[in-house]
Specification:
mainly alpha
């Protein structure tokens, strides 16, 4: 592991684990980089999602799938499991008002 003070949650680590021992499938620096990207994306989308909820008068659960469609575009550069993680994290942020 690195000397980074960033704590990567188990839910994200699970994207890069395989086998009985749950060994990491990628180098730590790659996982940390991907986590920072995905967390920053979820944090950055939260204000936009909140605005859509207020503007459209819908729930966060209705907005998140629409945002997921945009995140699946190849130009975004996320793997499908990362898109799912970002959407789950975004839903958490919206539910907790963060």
């Amino acid at each position: 592991m690195s000397e980074s003070q960033i704590v990567v949650p188990d839910s994200f680590l699970a994207l890069f684990q395989a086998g009985a021992g749950r060994r990491l499938t990628e180098p730590w620096h790659h996982i940390l980089s991907r986590y920072e990207c995905c967390e920053d994306l979820a944090q950055g989308l939260a204000p936009q999602a909140r605005a859509l909820v207020a503007e459209l008068g819908v729930t966060a659960e209705a907005v998140t799938p629409k945002l997921a469609q945009g995140l699946q575009h190849p130009s975004v550069g996320l793997a499908p499991e990362e898109v799912q993680w970002v959407c789950t994290r975004l839903a958490e942020l919206l539910a907790h008002g963060l």
